[in-house]
Structures are given as structure tokens and as C-alpha cells.
# Entry
Amino acid sequence: MYLKIKKIETYILRVPLGEKRFFSSQCAFPERNSLLVRIETEEGIYGWGEGGQYGPPEPVKACIEHVLAPLLIGRDPLDKAVLWHEMYNHTRDFGQKGTYIEAISAIDIALWDICGKALHVSVSQLIGGCQRKAVEMYATGCYYRGEHYLDLDRTVKELGEEAAEYVRQGFHLLKIKVGLLPVEEDAKRVQAIRENVGPDVDIFVDCNHSYNANTAVRMGRYLEEYGILFMEEPVVPEDLEGYRFVRDKLDIAIAGGEAEYTLNGFRHLIENGCIDIAQPDICVTGGLTEFQRILAFAQAYGVQVIPHAWGSGIAFATALSALSAIPVNPHTANPVPLQNEPVIEYDRNFNPLRDELLTEPVSIADGKVVVPQGSGLGVDIDRTVLEKYMV
Ligand code: CA
# Structure
């Protein structure tokens, strides 16, 4: 079988959040952004990909249009790994991390979608087969809200209620934010959430790299006291020594990698003993092709892989497809979420790009997200919604 790439289109989507904006330790999120790519072949098969959800999507769009697309026109999408290496080799000297890798990620995902559709199999079948038809999800929420996040009494009360609401909605796993307030005040927020949801809910904490190593250890001791299962991005992604220091000092599992790029980036994080849980974002780190390499490398080191998921319905379907194919690691006849069974991040903030964009929304049953069963990524885009949010 041969296919031929005919056309590559990019779409920037943007939704202002207005009153629904939220804060991490790093910044306010006043809008949702996404960069989608649509690749079409001479045979009329098309695939969707996504990249560039962290920063402004315009540079990723420019990179696809001006640098990568000219390499791909006329080429066969079934050679997706060949094309991956060509794109990477072409941009290595100036693009080992950041925009260029995000652009390669978006294209690579669209090529996998095309391959699945051409062969009438799902992306998880292309990877090697479906290990699970539905993936356990965790709620990401309890951000800093509005302008009153410095009012600790009010924020503690509201957070407790927000966390309890997620449990009522059926979530058994919950990820919350710290890092914007002094350690002792953020510890009170964590304590309030723990007290509101009780001891049986698994809680993870995301610092968004707001600490130096020593402060991270101080926060980590509070997290251990409240039975938190992992501490995400305790220090800046460049500080491998800091990561290792924090991991050596604490018993709590250390997670990281959403701001890391390619197998080489993860090689340094993992070989240096920085993390227990790797969180590659497939739309950022090099697409599904590179994700397979990161997964194999991490599993050889006994590091769990829990992909970071942030973006539109295409990013979510991509993460779901990859997660459905991850083997239980280490194997057990009774896999436990996070311990050896992968889980998917389900951000609870307002996100119409995830919840409205697909022609058939991803369905949820018994606290799990059902993996779309169609060929390729198993999802398609509603053109009306696409045009509504297109810039
Ligand atoms: Ca994070």
C-alpha cells in the first residue's frame, strides 16, 4: 500500500475564559489555546494532530507551515517513523526542545491517525493492541481562583467543597495545586482537601516547579503527613540535581516531565534518578512515535508513565489511545490505578476545546474514560465548533 500526502493545514483555536480563568503557581490562565494540524492524502484520507498547547500556538503554526510541511508533501504517511527522523534531523541544530518538537508532535499524531484509518485499525492496535477498553481517570482541579486566592480562610473553605464535589461526581483520584503561597499556607490548603475527601481518595499534588530543592523537601514532608501519593514538578525542569536531592530526601513519589522533550530529555531525567513517574505530554514531547521510545525506556527503569494531558479533544483522544496500549507495569493479576495501572488526567476547569470539539464526545462510565473504538484516533472534529473557536 502507498499513500501520498497532498495537503497540510493548521488551525489556531482560542477561547477566552473570562470569569472562569484560574491560576497555577506560575501564572493566570485567561484563555485556552490549541494548534491543530490536518493532513490529507491524495487518496482522500485525513488525520488530525495537535501541538503547542503550553505557549502561544503561532510559532508552532509557522514552524509547520514554513519548515516541516515542505518536507512532507508528496511523501507516504505510512513511513511515519522515517518522516519523524527526517523532521528531527532537519531541525536538530536549533530545535531539540520547544516549538520545533511540538510541531513534529502535531504532525506525527496526524500521521498515526491517517495510518490507522488507511489500515482500518485503531491507533492502540497500531501500537500493539488494546490493553484496556477504558482508562481510570483522575480529576485535576483545586487551582487558585479569582483575585481572592490570598484570602486563606475563604480559599481553604472553597477548596474543601470543590474537592468533595469531585468525589461526589465519582472521582477516586484527585490532583491539586500548590506553590503560589508560602509552604505553611499551602499545607493548610492540602490539609483542608484531605479532611474534606477523607482517607480513601488518592490525592496527588502539582507544584508547577515553584520551589528550590530545599523548599520542595519542606513541602514534601507536609505532603507525606497528609498521605499524598505523588509530588509533581517540585523544582524547575532544568534542575536535575535538585530533582535528585528532593527524591533522595523524601519517601513520596516524585513525578515530572510535562516540560521535557524527546527520549533524550527523558533519558537525562530517568538516568539521573530524578523521577518515579514520567509524565510526557504526547503533543509536546515528540508525538506517538517518540512516546513509544520514552515508554520503553522508562519501563526498563521501573519508572511509571502517566502521560500529561492538556489541550483539545484531539490531545485527549491521543493520550487515551496511547494509554489504552500501555502494559500493566510491573505485572500483577490485580492492577491498582497509579501503582501499576495507568491513569488519565481529566482537567476539571472549563475547556470547550476538549468538551465541544469532537463530533462524538468521549464517554465516561464508572469513573473511567472509554477509549474510542473507531479507526485511527477514533474521533473527528465538528467543523462548526472548529470555526467558532478559530482565530
Ligand atoms: Ca502539571
Summary: The pocket of calcium ion is lined by residues 206, 208, 232-233, 258 (CB under 6 Å). The chain has 14 helices and 16 strands. The first strand starts at residue 5 and ends at 16.
